[in-house]
């Protein structure tokens, strides 16, 4: 907040992906960001441990709590998007509110966090590749063959432009939402399980039973990716209207969908049985009910859709990280060559190659170390990435307050002060839960895992320090950063 903020951007050969602007409408952005949240992956992966380690049958309420916190956060986030339209949304917002050094720290944390999440998802794809595709192909190929093949497909698809990506992700998202919705509706039509259809899972006595904080922590991790709405501001039609609407629509859809589907699955098992099954058979938790209500063919389809869900999330995060790299190159923080757009597809293709390389190197190290794709690659990296994103969201909330207090561009009390403060406090609470329950989130009490919060802090401080150095040594680059 020490330097003036300008919403104008320096001209240049590739100053933004705006060269291909106006391609995306409301629902295309919604497809992009809900795909990042990977609803099917979140349901199959996060719900069983959230039930067994968290609040049991009250899990639908945990998704409501997480969703409400993010809806409150979205008020300030969406208000900010009307005044700051940049591909590097998080760090641009932090720069505008708290100053460029803080924004630089945010940029570094965003790159590390999103990259960690993508590495985690490649590990998860490899793991389920061996489970789903191995028997079908009658092969015992190791997990990393599937992961690296997925890396190649994501790279080829990602470079072909955001319009194709949004249409493809729309199809994949519809399929994964559809299979879960069909299961939930089938449970409702058949009247549920032992207790029938009951609202007891949403009753406060059940929602706040057990370890509700751990349940909210897992629920919140299932929402990661929705914040990418603002990243596509320069590529959508009328960003000052489309981005806020896409943010609210995305969070609301994820909240309602997750709450309804988890309520249905709890009803299917019954209030007394659901925690026991989630603890003893977490891998089959959803497939047991799918087999009963949908039959073998659709249950098999669900296992294949799990792979497409992970792929869709990978492609969405790839696009997110590429736009961060592209924005930083346009501001002089990264090499200018990364600002180039593909002559045919209009995508930042060199940034795309760099992003793929930044994933392949850590994956190669995990492969060389013989790491388990689920218990180490996925669990550890997703924990690291989630901590970083939650802390970024919290800082962004407070930067919104600082921005509007300084500029008076939005004087509405709820939008510019109350909602951002409440959202920031809620996110800090979730961040504390993440740190205190890292062993549950990551499935490990390794000293490496316990160091994750300090790693995120070190990355942030390194970015802040670089910001101060640039202010003294390269004032031209410093002046352009976050603008």
From TrEMBL:
Membrane topology: Multi-pass membrane protein
Domain Amino acid permease/ SLC12A intervals: 30-434
Pfam families registered for this protein in UniProt: AA_permease
Localization per record: Membrane
UniProt xrefs under Gene3D superfamilies: Amino acid/polyamine transporter I
Keywords: Membrane, Transmembrane, Transmembrane helix
Record's keyword annotation contains Transport: no
Residues spanning the signal sequence: none
This protein's record includes keyword Membrane: yes
GO cellular component, one term: membrane
BP term (GO), one: transmembrane transport
Transmembrane segments: 26-47, 59-78, 90-112, 119-137, 143-162, 169-192, 212-233, 245-271, 291-315, 350-371, 383-404, 416-435, 451-470
PANTHER family according to UniProt: AMINO ACID PERMEASE, AMINO ACID TRANSPORTER-RELATED
Name of the protein in question: Amino acid transporter
Lineage summary: Bacteria, Pseudomonadati, Pseudomonadota, Betaproteobacteria, Burkholderiales
């Amino acid at each position: 907040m020490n330097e003036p903020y300008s919403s104008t951007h320096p001209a240049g050969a590739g100053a933004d992906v705006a060269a291909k602007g106006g391609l995306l409408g409301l629902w295309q952005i919604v497809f992009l960001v809900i795909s990042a949240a990977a609803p099917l992956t979140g349901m199959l992966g996060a719900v069983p441990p959230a039930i067994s380690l968290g609040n049991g049958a009250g899990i639908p309420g945990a998704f409501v709590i997480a969703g409400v916190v993010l809806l409150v956060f979205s008020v300030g986030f969406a208000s900010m998007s009307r005044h700051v339209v940049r591909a590097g949304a998080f760090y641009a917002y932090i720069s505008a509110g708290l100053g460029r050094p803080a924004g630089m720290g945010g940029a570094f944390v965003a790159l590390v966090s999103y990259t960690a999440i993508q590495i985690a998802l490649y590990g998860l794809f490899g793991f389920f590749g061996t489970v789903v595709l191995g028997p079908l192909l009658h092969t015992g190929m190791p997990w990393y063959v599937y992961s690296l093949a997925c890396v190649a497909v994501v790279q080829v698809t990602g470079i072909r432009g955001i319009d194709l990506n949004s249409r493809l992700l729309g199809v994949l998202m519809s399929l994964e939402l559809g299979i879960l919705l069909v299961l939930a509706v089938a449970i409702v039509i058949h009247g549920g399980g032992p207790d029938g259809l009951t609202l007891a899972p949403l009753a406060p006595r059940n929602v706040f039973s057990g370890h509700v904080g751990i349940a909210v922590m897992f629920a919140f991790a299932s929402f990661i990716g929705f914040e990418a709405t603002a990243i596509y501001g320069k590529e959508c039609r009328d960003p000052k209207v489309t981005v806020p609407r896409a943010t609210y629509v995305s969070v609301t859809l994820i909240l309602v969908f997750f709450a309804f589907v988890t309520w249905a699955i709890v009803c299917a098992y019954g209030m007394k049985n659901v925690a026991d099954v989630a603890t003893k058979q977490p891998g089959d938790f959803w497939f047991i009910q799918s087999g009963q209500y949908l039959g073998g063919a659709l249950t098999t389809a669900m296992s294949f859709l799990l792979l497409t869900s992970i792929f869709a999330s990978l492609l969405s995060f790839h696009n997110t990280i590429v736009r961060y790299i592209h924005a930083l190159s346009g501001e002089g923080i990264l090499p200018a060559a990364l600002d180039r757009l593909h002559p045919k597809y209009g995508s930042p293709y060199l940034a795309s190659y760099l992003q793929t390389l930044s994933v392949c190197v850590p994956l190669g190290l995990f492969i060389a170390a013989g790491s388990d794709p689920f218990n180490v690659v996925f669990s550890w990296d997703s924990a690291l990435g989630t901590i970083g994103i939650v802390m970024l969201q919290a800082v962004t909330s407070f930067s919104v307050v600082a921005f509007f207090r300084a500029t008076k561009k939005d004087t509405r009390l709820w939008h510019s002060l109350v909602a951002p403060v409440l959202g920031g406090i809620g996110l800090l609470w979730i961040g504390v839960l993440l740190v205190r329950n890292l062993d549950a989130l990551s499935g490990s009490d390794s000293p490496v895992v316990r160091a994750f919060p300090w790693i995120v802090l070190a990355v942030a401080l390194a970015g802040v320090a670089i910001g101060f150095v640039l202010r003294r040594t390269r004032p031209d680059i410093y002046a352009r950063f976050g603008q």
